[in-house]
Amino acid sequence: MSNWLNKIRSNSKGIIYILFVYIIAQFLWWEILMVRQNNALLEEKQKVLELTISDTERLQAEIDKLQESKIQKTYMVVGEGTIFLLLLLYGINLIRKANRKEHELLDQKNNFLLSITHELKTPLATTKLQLQTLKKHQLAHEKQQELIEIAINENERLNSLIDNVLLATRMQENEYHMAKERVDLSDLITKIATASYRSSLESGNLKLIIEPSVLCEIDKLAFPSILTNLVDNAFKYSGELMNVEIKLKKKSSGIVLEVSDRGMGIKDSEKNRIFDQFYRSGSEETRKTKGTGLGLFIVKYLIEKHGGTIAVKDNSPNGSVFEIHLN
Ligand code: ADP
User: Which of 52, 130, 236, 266 is within CB 3.0–4.6 Å of 151 for a Cys-Cys bond?
Assistant: First the structure.
């Protein structure tokens, strides 16, 4: 299906380019013809003048006038033509850009459908397998707990994936309404981290560097999505070496929240695009990590709804730092 779509797309692209080249060539040819026709007309006029005027001085003056009007008309045709050609090229460029954007969006949506199907099926299949194993075999208590733990984790993953999709849909319809209240952000971050990343905190893969009692006006329900999307990404794109930090501090300019990792980092050319809906770097084939391209879109939307900003920087010596500024 996608091969078929790609074929139609690349064929229609080719036809559009041929059409544009044809229009430009036609136009240049029209200009040349206009100038030639003009010159031929003036030559005819000159011949008539030579036949009708005997006074050589007057004849020369009339011929000079003709030459002048020939130059003026040539300038007029070339000038008008050039402006028209520039407008045409500008229009073509706009169409080309819109076309490219549309194709990119279509590709991203296709990738999203592929990945969401995969993302939904994997936790379901894993949970089914754990339950079937528990049903079939008489396992030791410890092993049972291990399987139940995996099933619960998968269930949570599925839950947060569906939350993300629902959130993104509500945002697109502009139906997301903030309910801001004054909260102790230091406390809230610690609670979310302890509930969602207990084992990472215990193993030292996640560190909290939180200034105490930082107060902030935020939506308590939306905030966990911001933090967990950033921390999940930090782990997901870290590879083997997991060294994730959440830092919170109050500065004179406002509140700064940072989520940093020592992972693969983000190319400069992609730093702006990663916040677009459905955007995932690389192609679906080469991508090893799971995801839908919704996480950062949601984070940015929620931060901006809070009147804040988010930016991504390189971490040293490697990895990324997502820096949020809130008031
Ligand atoms: P997803 O993780 O589901 O692909 P996101 O919107 O959360 O979607 O992220 C968009 C893209 O940004 C990811 O596909 C990944 O390429 C890049 N990205 C996000 N966070 C990080 C990070 N901490 N390190 C490296 N790349 C990242």
Answer: 130
Eight-class DSSP state of 267: -
Extract the tokens encoding 146: 């291990």
Q: Where are the alpha helices (DSSP H) in 237-321?
A: 295-305
Q: Kindly state if the Cβ of 228 falls inside 6 Å of ligand 1.
A: no
Say yes or no: CB of residue 296 within 6 Å of ligand 1: yes
10 Å CB burial of residue 1 (0-12, 13-18, 19+) is exposed
* Residues 26, 61 contacting (CB under 8 angstroms): no
Q: Which atom of ligand 1 is nearest to the CA of 238?
A: 24
Q: Which atom of ligand 1 is nearest to the CA of 298?
A: 6
**Contact present, 315 and 321 (Cβ < 8 Å):** yes
130 lines ligand 1 (CB under 6 A): no
Dist. CA 126–CA 123, nearest whole Å: 5
In Å, how far are 83, 228, 253, 292 from 118, measured between CA atoms? 53, 21, 43, 10
Closest atom of ligand 1 to 265 CA is 25
Given this model, what pLDDT does residue 116 score? 80
Q: Output helix, strand, coil percentages for the chain, rounded to the nearest 5.
A: 65, 15, 20
The pTM (predicted TM-score) of the whole model is 0.69
Task: Please state the rounded mean pLDDT for residues 167-186.
Answer: 86
For 45-87, what is each residue's pLDDT tens digit?
A: 989 988 998 888 888 998 899 889 888 888 888 898 889 889 9
Nearest-CA residue for ligand 1 atom 16 is 281
Q: How much of the chain exceeds pLDDT 90, in percent?
A: 45
